[in-house]
Structure formats: C-alpha cells, structure tokens
Design brief:
This protein is α+β, with helices and mostly antiparallel strands. It contains 15 helices and 16 strands. The strands form 3 sheets. The protein has an 8-stranded mixed sheet with strand order 1-5-6-11-10-9-7-8, with helices on both faces. A 5-stranded mixed sheet has the order 13-12-14-15-16, sandwiched between helices. Strands 2-4-3 form a 3-stranded antiparallel sheet. Bound molecules: adenosine monophosphate (AMP).
Length: 440
C-alpha cells in the first residue's frame, strides 16, 4: 500500500464535482468580466519567485519546493500563480499600448511546504485573476467587484471586504522607517518571528497573531499618516467607488498580506455564515506597482489581482450547506441477463448515449435481482432488461423505475419510445433526464 505524500489530498467523486462546480462558476464570472484564461507551467525558475513574492516572505524563505533538475537549473514548483502569469504576459509581449489591459484568469495547483493542518495543504488549488495595464483606481475596484460577484454567485452572503492601503514605494519607505523606530523600542518583549520580521520586512509585524504583540501593534504608527498624496487620493477614489457599488468594507490598517509585491490597495473577503460562524478570509489580493517591471516588463505598467483557495471555498461551502444537490442519477441501465447478450447490450447502450440518454450497462452479470438493485442504487430512471425472449424477438423490456410499470418495446423503436415517455412525463420531477432535445 502507498500512502499520500504528507500534506496532499485526493479530490474524488462528489468532492471532485464540488471543485468543478466552484471552478466553473468562478471561470464564468471572470469570462463575464472579459478575462481570458492563462495556463502557465507548474515549474518556473526559482528566481522568479525570489524576485516577485520576495526574499522576505514566508513563502520564499520556508515554503518553496525547490530542486535542481538534471541540467543543474534551480526549479521551483509554483507557490502561487501571479508571478508565472505576469512572466507569461511579459514574455509573450502582450503589453503593447494598444493591447492593454491584459485581463488574465487562471486555475490550478500550487505547492507550499507548510505545516499541514485543517484546510492547509502542501498541494492546493487556486483560482485568480490579474489585470495588468495603466493605473486607475477604478481598475482595482473592478477587480474587487469581480471577486465580490464571484463569491456571491457561489452563494456567499454577508461578505465583508477588508481593505487597506499600504502605499506606494515612497509611502512605504517613510512608514517602514517610523515603524522600525517604534518596534525597535519594544522588540525585546516580542516573539521570535517578529524579531526576524523586523529585519526582513518590518510591515509584517503588523499581522502578528501573538496577543501580547498585538497590544504593541495597536499603538504603532498608522500607515494612513504616511501615505503620499497620490496614494491617499487613489485610496479615497477606491473607497468612494466601493460605496457607490454598494460593496461594504472595513478598513484594517494592519492588513499587509504576506507577499512582497503588493503596494497601495490590498484586500481580503471575510465570510460570516447566517448562523454567525466566522470563517475568516476566503481570498486575498491587491495592487502591484513594481511587479511587472521587476519581471522584465515595461515600467509604466501596473496591475491588480486576487487569488481564491479552492479547498477553502469547498470546505466552507460544505460546512455551511451552500452546495445545491448534485444530480448523479442516470436515465437508463441496460441489463443483459446472460453474458452472451453483453455485446448486444453495449450496442443498445451506445445508441441510447448517442441519443442523449445518460446510460450505464451491467457487465458484471449478477442475475435479474442483483441488476435491478444496482439500477436503483444508480438512481436510474429506466431499467432495460435483455433476456432470452427479448433477444429472440429483437425487443427489450423497459421498466420505469419511478412508477414500477414495464413494457416490451421493439428495439428499432426504443429511442422514439423513450422520447415519447419523456415528453409525457408529468411527475413534476425537476431533474431533466433527457438531454437529447435540449434546444426545444
Ligand atoms: P495567498 O496566495 O497566500 O494570498 O492565498 C490566497 C488563498 O489561497 C488563501 O486565501 C487560501 O484560501 C489559499 N491558500 C493559501 N495557502 C494554502 C494552503 N497551504 N492550503 C490551502 N489553501 C491555501
């Protein structure tokens, strides 16, 4: 027996249906905002992430799956997709003035060597978007509203947008100096992580979760007092626009996010269920001023994006009963009562499928009773019985498992017979078993 690699999980059966549903829904909303799909490699040069996600981030410092390939290149399994998508946009020269903005969405696996815990995996999936082009605060608002609508369409109500402005480079340089002064005086009593953050990226101290450190953070200088006029003005526009769109938000001056490429607006959507359960952040994102340039693109181009954890969405939706019943029933179950009729059964099953009936066929041969049991287990609407008499007379017995009636039908007429039955079906069932005449 082989075990799963630590921190990985199988997504199978109904769980896989849930993931597909979430991904398809997110993709539909992104397409509706005129975003296009980007599929970039899972492996990238390690340096891409060092330069973008940043040397001071936890991801780069501790969590990357990095190895040397046989050509002695340093390769990393992507810990997130923004860097790869921007690299792809730059490499493919998609940023010509007439072509911007580039609106990209992506979905796929990411890898982080984290301590596995509830909802945290070493391989997990993200959906996200990147909008890259000329700067406008309304682009940020557009990205935030896309995220908002996507979550709404999935069924999340009571979303809370948590937002902050961490300023442009100039704002941040000033602010970091002030923070270093402030935290320098308290550092002795702070946690080991904070001591490390002090040197690497002092901003990260702001999201320390240690209660005694949070007390110190409470009295720290606030970013809003150090924003340049331009950053301040942009943030005001974003807030006003969100007000106009009716997207409620809360400003959290300690929200900095763990990736180094962010600047100005950063955000998360938090969710509290109707039962009052606080699930915390479902996704996160923000604006980036220098990332495109850092990766070799033009200077004047900036972007904004967010990423949603599919695992996180699936677990919250399951927990909070946000999934609709997934219909796993079938239309027809073909039952050859003898192994010698299996060839004929496959022929019939194929014809049914080609005519729009979702069909399965029994090739295990467990006798009529066993096969009927299986038909019920599969929630089949019809059982199609192929016995000795039927083979002789070129017919098949169609048993309607909903009302327990059955009729012998000439094989040449099986499709029209089932079509007619479907049209007559007045049982009020809302599941649409028959897909063949969908356009009617
Ligand atoms: P980040 O790229 O760190 O901003 O994360 C964006 C989203 O990805 C988070 O809100 C999580 O839902 C999800 N996520 C990040 N890391 C993991 C992980 N190790 N396992 C599962 N989901 C994750």
């Amino acid at each position: 027996m082989f075990n799963l690699v630590k921190g990985t999980h199988d997504v199978i059966l109904t769980e896989a249906d849930k993931y597909s549903y979430i991904e398809q829904t997110l993709i539909q909303v992104a397409e509706f905002f005129n975003y296009k799909e980007f599929r970039t490699p899972i492996i990238e040069q390690s340096e891409l992430f060092q330069r973008s996600v940043g040397d001071s981030s936890d991801i780069v410092r501790k969590e990357m799956y990095t190895f040397f390939d046989k050509g002695e290149r340093s390769i990393t399994l992507r810990p997130e997709l923004t860097a790869g998508v921007i690299r792809s946009i730059v490499n493919n020269k998609l940023l010509a003035l007439g072509d911007i903005p580039v609106k990209a969405y992506y979905v796929g696996p990411c890898f982080r060597y984290e301590r596995p815990q509830q909802g945290r995996y070493r391989q997990f999936n993200q959906f996200g978007v990147e909008c890259v082009g000329v700067v406008s605060p309304y682009r940020d608002v557009e990205v935030i509203s896309l995220c908002y609508f996507a979550l709404k369409v999935l069924g999340f109500e009571n979303l809370k947008l948590v937002i902050n402005c961490i300023g442009d480079e100039e704002s941040r340089t000033n602010y970091k100096n002030v923070l270093r002064d402030y935290f320098g005086k308290h550092l002795d009593s702070m946690c080991a992580d904070c001591k490390e953050r002090y040197n690497l990226n002092v901003l990260r101290i702001l999201d320390c979760k240690v209660p005694t450190d949070q007390e110190i953070v409470k009295n720290a200088p606030k970013i809003e007092d150090y924003l340049t006029d331009k950053s301040k003005e942009n943030f005001e526009k974003v807030k006003k626009s969100l007000d106009e769109l009716g997207i409620e938000y809360e400003i959290d001056t300690n929200l900095v996010r763990g990736l180094d490429y962010y600047s100005d607006v950063v955000f998360e959507f938090h969710y509290t269920s109707s039962k009052g359960l606080d699930y915390g952040a479902l996704c996160g994102g923000g604006h980036y001023n220098k990332l495109v340039q850092e990766i070799g693109g033009p200077h004047e181009v900036e972007g904004c994006g967010f990423a949603i954890g599919i695992e996180r969405i699936a677990s919250v939706m399951s927990d909070d009963n946000l999934f609709n019943e997934i219909d796993e029933s079938i239309d027809c179950y073909v039952m050859p009562l003898d192994v010698t009729y299996q060839g004929k059964a496959i022929e019939i099953a194929t014809a049914l499928r080609l005519n729009g009936f979702k069909t399965d066929v029994n090739l295990e041969g467990k006798g009529l009773k066993g096969m009927l049991k299986k038909a019920l287990k599969l929630s089949s609407k019809y059982a199609l019985i192929l016995g000795e008499d039927e083979i002789k007379t070129n017919t098949i017995v169609v048993k309607d498992l909903t009302n327990e009636t059955q009729e012998s039908v000439n094989l040449a007429e099986i499709i029209s017979y089932l079509d007619r039955k479907e049209d007559e079906c007045s049982c009020g069932c809302d599941h649409h078993h028959h897909h063949h005449n969908d356009e009617e």
